[in-house]
Amino acid sequence: MAADVHKKKGWEVPNGSLVPTDGQPMERSESPTPGLVQGTEPGAGQEGGMFVHTRSYEDLTSPEDGDVASRSPEEGRGDQADQTSMAHISKDFSELSTQLTGMALDLEEEMRLSQENEMDLSPQTARRDSARSEKEDEDVTMEAWRMHQKHVFVLSEAGKPVYSRYGSEEALSSTMGVMMALVSFLEAEKNAIRSIHADGYKVVFVRRSPLVLVAMARTRQSEQEIAHELLYIYYQILSLVTWTQLNHIFQQKQNYDLRRLLAGSERITDNLLDLMARDPSFLMGAARSLPMAAGLRDTVSTCLQQAKAKSLVFSILLSRNQLVSLVRRKDQFLHPIDLHLLFNLISSSSSFREGEAWTPICLPKFNSSGFFHAHISYLEQDLCLLLVSTDREDFFTISDCKHRFQERLRKRGVSHALLEALRTPFYSVSQVGIPDLRHFIYKSKSSGLFTSPEIEAPYVSEEEKQRLLELYQYLHSRAHNSSRPLKNIYFTGPSENLLAWVTSAFELYMCYSPLGTKAAAVSAVNKLMKWIRREEDRLFILTPQTY
Amino acid sequence: MFKKNMAPRRTQQVRAGPSTEQSYVYKVVLLGSTAVGKSSIAFRYVKNDFRESMPTVGCSFFTQLVCLETATIKLEIWDTAGQEKYHSVCRLYYRGANAALLVYDIARKATFARAKLWLRELEKEFLHDEIVIVLVSNKTDLAAQREVTFEEAEEFAKSRSLIYMETSAKSNHHVTEVFMAVAHKLLKQEQQKESALQHQPWKKSRVDLREPSNQTKKCCMN
Lengths: 547, 222
Ligand SMILES: Nc1nc2c(ncn2[C@@H]2O[C@H](COP(=O)(O)OP(=O)(O)OP(=O)(O)O)[C@@H](O)[C@H]2O)c(=O)[nH]1
Ligand SMILES: [Mg+2]
Known about the structure:
By secondary structure, chain A is an alpha+beta fold. Chain A has helices spanning about 55-60, 80-95, 105-110, 125-135, 140-145, 175-185, 225-240, 245-250, 260, 265-280, 280-285, 295-305, 335-345, 395-410, 415-425, 460-480, 520-540; strands at about 150-155, 160-165, 195-200, 200-210, 210-215, 285-290, 310-320, 320-330, 355-360, 370-380, 385-390, 435-445, 450, 490, 495-500, 505-510, 545.
């Protein structure tokens, strides 16, 4: 099986600009912080990244992958006035953050880091809108958050049910029929993303022949984000059957019942949907690396690198969806989506905990036409080793790689330190030393990795944690809105103040105490960036290795 | 003590160790519909434990040493996934096996039919004396829901010269015995082959297929 799909060299990939493919081009001011061009931001690897470069979901919803064809009237069409859009943001935030006085500010101006001011929003507009939002304020109780629902259906183009998140597909057959009718009604071109807004619901359709994926969501996610999740489901199905096989099957028999082939995998899809709702990795289109001392990580990576075999493409060491180390073949890059699918597969089944698994797996972003064989085993309670091979006959060779890796760890005397590091997978935001800072997500674009502290008080209950993630989701969707991307967003509310800052090199989302002042928040950005820079060799994987 | 060959074996050849006590490596594959209890049987045998398990993804590999009086045997156990989508790769897992456990669930008749299909597939791949096959009817603890009778299964096994055993991974009934029966049978074949080679021209000896219980000996009891 050739694995030559992404023969890209780290820096040759001209990516990282956030210019949306179908929106107005955004003026790019010079890098906002001196020296922070992509590749030099905190967390950027020294010898190139490990992943295919992506711009998170823009990459998925780019024309190649379909387009957001219709937009909600309130969402505004690209050319609509800022004001309307801003009003909408404020309204959404007021609902997300209980009562809220919203403020969108030009942070760059505030920070005086850039002389030019290309900010899309005038503070006046924002303030007026925020005043409005106060009045429109809605008291969203925790109960309402629980009500959040997202139904997901997958059906074949012939209208046969393939997957349903809630309830049996059988019972939903008739609904599927209706949806199918809708899809054919909406259909203009293949691979289009379409949506309908009704009654507090968004219904988003993604068509990937021979499948149609539908979500009915009450979440505040944008169509783009919902479509993004649907595409993940699509790729997840491909990872089990391959694109080639899927198409072959439906060419042979149009009304094939795919459930036969997917029987038993619903759990994997369910898990993916759950994971997407609580793990920011999917939102960020990046992997989270497990914090550990750089020296330790380097030693572990070297051991992993040395336990190589001819057919190995990727060696991945992970702990509970956090990356410990990743070694790849020299000119092969993993796509974050493929990595997420692997993480999802592993976290969705306890069957890997015993023995050594050897399973065919398609990495659809890497090569959607064939299977790799993955060797999956747990070395310790929370330490999973994943070895991806091109040769399905190579079980014993790959199994030997695992033993050699363990042997090397022992010889180098790092087994113990590694276990210690696994015991503290999170760090506290208090380490940063900014009293009002509650939480943040920082993504280095060139490395495709992000870091984030443990979620602490007041986000203790599941509902509160969920709400925080939804706030981030919302910030993210506004920052990446295909028609009106915002580089900077700043909001103050009674529950928290929030900030998003998206540049060509990094993305930063912060959550502060509502008591903090704007000036404090602004200076906190600098302080946080400095802290991340200081800690980057612990928080990121700066020296990824290749075979 | 074991010669370790990393490539999957394509034949049923086993390798003798250098010491006077013989050691052998055998490949045993578990086949059968999803949820019949293949992983539970493997887990019971290797870890002597039972816990709610999830469907296997692809295949799980285990090894287990069996110490018999005359030889030490290493069983390489391939616990395959019963889900339909893995059917096409299963050949990869059973190829070169020395023994196969065809597992079905006594409370689901359809799984018995599936076991028969597996047998047909094995018969295409192997000559009769190339592989030891055990028909394993699992979940005997669910006697009340039984859909396949002992007689029916035994009759079928007899007609196809399979070893037949009933197990319960849950209540630890006869699980070790299945693997011991396999080990003994394989060893017996081995020794017959060797003595045939040493002393006399090949003479096929009678093998009692129906009485595995007298062959069951606990591993390393001495
Ligand atoms: N009552 C009872 N239940 C059992 C027994 N063995 C397994 N089970 C249950 O049957 C279900 C399936 O068991 P598994 O061992 O995962 O089945 P499997 O054959 O490995 O399934 P696949 O990996 O999908 O092919 C689980 O819920 C087990 O707890 C048994 O002896 N008695
Ligand atoms: Mg199993």
